[in-house]
Specification:
It holds the Pfam family OTCace_N. The chain has 313 residues and is α/β, with parallel strands linked by helices. It is built from 13 helices and 9 strands.
Length: 313
């Protein structure tokens, strides 16, 4: 069966742990494994802007011995010039895997239904599972075992990062607390999925509109931009002083309420003075540069995992 990574809970808890183990091993011996030698081609398609994702997938595929073919979504016009299903049938015959950053999750799911090769979510409006693998890898590097650890996410609770934190942290057996304005909560069905997973793994999931309660004593605090790609038209209101997000800014005053050495995570790009203070992202508790590097290792591991059909290479 062709395996895909469309959302964070496409990996079982055991699989997530094995992918993270492999990512850490790949980081420790960066050029040792070349499962795509041949080279096999991986199509990496962008319908939205990118820096880290293009770099880390391109470098990662070439380090695995494969050929990264970056496709400009504006040229391909998937779903405009031809249907997603037809594109999937064509691309799936040319390459070994498809990595796609796009808008609707339904587009990615349609691609996976019709492509004969693994499809990887490189960010949709709903999820960003590759980033979450990098985040979990970073927490493991700094703190060891993930199970039982706690993480607070602050800000836009309805965006891709928020929803991925719920699913991925629950899968890892972590306690995840999300603090957002009541107007920007995660989707109810995603919350239910995360709660079900947490019930199996021993983790827990909480949603609140009280940022102080969310960060109280946690091992890690994460945030993300208040203006996701595609929401540029709302930039002024989302970043205004009286925006509903303002009380959720990750400031030094809020960070002191977390555990003394709590890790600070941000997927980047970051907007200092809005969702995070400069003192926090540039301060001693920040691990954002490790997090950015770990995109490479985590994505190499997930590609190797999917291309082996879910058995480990
Ligand atoms: N929520 C952000 C994540 C960027 C990596 C966005 O979708 O733009």
């Amino acid at each position: 069966m062709t395996r895909h990574l469309l959302a964070d809970d496409d990996l079982t808890p055991q699989e997530q742990r094995r992918v993270l183990d492999l990512a850490l091993a790949m980081k420790a011996d960066r050029y040792a494994r070349r499962p795509l030698e041949g080279p096999q081609t991986v199509a990496i398609i962008f319908d939205k802007p990118t820096l880290r994702t293009q770099l880390s997938f391109a470098a990662g595929v070439s380090e695995l011995g494969g050929y990264p073919m970056v496709v400009d979504g504006d040229l391909a016009q998937i779903g405009v010039r031809e249907s997603v299903a037809d594109v999937a049938r064509v691309v799936g015959r040319q390459v070994s895997a498809i990595v796609w950053r796009t808008y609707g999750q339904d587009r990615l799911e349609e691609m996976a239904r019709h492509a004969a090769v693994p499809v990887v979510n490189a960010l949709t409006d709903d999820y960003h599972p590759c980033q979450l693998l990098a985040d979990l890898m970073t927490i493991r590097e700094h703190r060891g075992d993930l199970a039982g650890r706690s993480l607070a996410y602050l800000g836009d609770g309805a965006n891709n990062m928020a929803q991925s934190y719920l699913l991925a942290c629950a899968t890892a057996g972590m306690h995840v607390r999300l603090a957002s304005p009541a107007s920007h909560r995660p989707r109810a069905d995603i919350l239910t999925r995360a709660e079900r997973i947490a019930a199996e793994t021993g983790g827990s999931v909480g949603v609140t509109d009280d940022p102080l309660a969310a960060v109280d004593g946690v091992d890690a605090v994460a945030t993300d931009t208040w203006v996701s790609m595609g929401q540029e038209g709302e930039k002024t209101s989302r970043q205004a002083e009286d925006s509903p997000f303002t009380p959720f800014a990750l400031t030094p005053e809020l960070l002191v309420r977390a555990a003394r050495d709590a890790l600070v995570l941000h997927c980047l790009p970051a907007y200092r003075g809005f969702e995070i203070s400069a003192e926090v992202i540039d301060g001693p508790q920040s691990v954002v540069w490790d997090e950015a590097e770990n995109r490479l290792h985590a994505q190499k591991a997930v590609l190797a995992f999917l291309l082996s059909g879910g058995s480990m290479p």
